[in-house]
Structures are given as C-alpha cells and as structure tokens.
Design goal:
The protein has helices spanning 3-22, 40-48, 59-66, 86-89, 102-114, 141-147, 173-187, 207-212, 222-225; strands at residues 30-34, 53-56, 74-77, 95-99, 119-125, 154-161, 194-200, 217-220. With 232 residues, it is α/β, with parallel strands linked by helices. An eight-stranded parallel beta sheet has the order 7-6-5-4-3-2-1-8. Helix 5 links the parallel strand 4 (95-99) and strand 5. The chain binds pyridoxal-5'-phosphate (PLP). Pyridoxal-5'-phosphate binds at residues 34, 36, 57, 78-79, 162, 203-205, 219-223.
Length: 232
C-alpha cells in the first residue's frame, strides 16, 4: 500500500472517530489535500485513493499543474491572492479561501462576471491577530461582509482561518471557538450573496481540535503527503 493511501486512511479514521465522539456526521467534513510542492504523480495517487479536492497556495503552481492533472478534482485557492493574478485562476478554482480585501473582492467579481461565473469565496480571518498573516480582523468581519453584497458574481460561502502555529494544538482551541461563534452569528444575516456553509480551519497539526470546535473543511498537506520538500 502506498504511504499516501495509508496517510489518507489514517486521516479518514481520525475524522471518523472524532465525529463519532462529537455526534457529528463524518461525511459533513470536507478534506482538502494541500498539494503545494507536491508533484503530479503523488497528487494523482491521492486522487486515485478518493481525494476529490486539492488546495494550492500559489497561483503559479495552479497554472503549472492544472492541465497536467486529467482526473476529476476540485481546485481550491487557499493562499494569499494578489489582485493582478485573479485572472489566471478564475476559470480553474471552485473555491477561493483567502478573500481578504475589498479590492480583491472587486477584481474577483469583475473577472467572474467576464466568464459568466459565480465565484465561491470564503472570507479569511486573521484569527490570531498576527502581523505576519493575511485576513480581516475579527472586529471588522460583519462590516466587511455587508460591503460584499454589491458584488453579484461573488458568493460568500463561509470563513477561513489559519491558526497561529503552536506545538500543542490545544493552545489554538480558543481561536477556533471564536471562529465558530462568528460563523454562527453571520448565519443569521440577511445578505443576498451570503450563505454561511463552510468553516475552513484546521491543518495537519490541529485539524482534530478544529473539527471538535465546528470546522467542516480541513486543509491537510503534511498529514497526507509527508514533509514538504521546497527545494525541488
Ligand atoms: C500549507 C497549508 C496548509 C496545510 O498545512 P499542513 O500543516 O501541511 O497540513 C493548510 N492551509 C494553508 C493555507 C496552507 O498554506
């Protein structure tokens, strides 16, 4: 059995067990296999073992790989997106996790409109208030989402966060709790292009804590493909 298959099975088992414990349906948890630095062969293997959504954090890498993967899979943009690069991925990705400014929203809306598409997006929250991370401040989220209503080719499907990196994932539980609370608050908002459906949080180190706190999308790289090799 390939190590990728073993890893996928392990992730699935872990998710199954935590969901049983939490009384949640494991099928409600969407796994995004994060494929940055991962080559085409290994991505194909993961797809063969049931991965149906992959996440990349750089536009360049999506462009490089997109045509080389001939299997059916959803592409997700999970990294910071520069306005001038939206045009390269607008026709390729099914969800942008990293909407973090009005300027970007405007560009996505414009490019989506050009190709007659409604682009699904998540609003990225800077949950740890870290200078090094992109995202909207927690206090500004309501306001930001209200301003998105005018972008008709944008559909806001939820929130995304990257928790601060810590050794012990228990340390980020309070951040995930806060995310879930805003997620639930926003569900009640009457905004035409808003449908709070996805809460994208949790990576290899902290996805089980994230699921316990309500995540329904987890983004897993190392846990599926092993340690990344940036030199290739
Ligand atoms: C790399 C990356 C991940 C996956 O990280 P792992 O720790 O390898 O699981 C998840 N989300 C984003 C935004 C990333 O850039």
């Amino acid at each position: 059995m390939s190590y990728i298959q073993e890893n996928i099975n392990e992730v699935r088992d872990n998710i199954y067990n935590i969901c049983k414990k939490m009384n949640r349906n494991p099928e409600d948890i969407k796994i995004i296999a994060v494929t940055k630095t991962v080559d085409i062969d290994r991505i194909s293997t993961a797809i063969d073992f049931g991965i149906d959504a992959i996440g990349e954090n750089r536009v360049q890498e999506i462009r490089k790989k997109y045509n080389k993967i001939d299997k059916k899979v959803e592409w997700h943009m999970i990294g910071h997106l520069q306005t001038n690069k939206v045009k390269y991925i607008i026709d390729k990705v099914s969800l942008i996790h990293s909407l973090d400014s009005l300027r970007l929203a405007k560009e996505i809306d414009k490019r989506a409109k050009n190709i007659d598409k409604t682009m699904n997006v998540l609003v990225q929250i800077n949950i740890g208030n870290e200078d090094s991370k992109y995202g909207i401040d927690l206090d500004d989220v309501h306001n930001f989402i209200e301003k998105l209503e005018s972008f008709k080719n944008l559909k806001v499907q939820g929130l995304m966060a990257i928790a601060p990196y810590v050794k012990n994932p228990e340390a980020v539980r309070p951040h995930f709790k806060k995310m879930k609370k805003i997620f639930d608050d926003l569900k009640g908002k009457d905004i035409e292009n808003l449908e709070m459906k996805y809460l994208s949080m949790g990576m290899t180190n902290d996805y089980l804590v994230a699921i316990e706190e309500g995540a329904n999308i987890v983004r897993i790289g190392t846990g599926i493909f092993g340690k990344r090799n940036y030199n290739k």
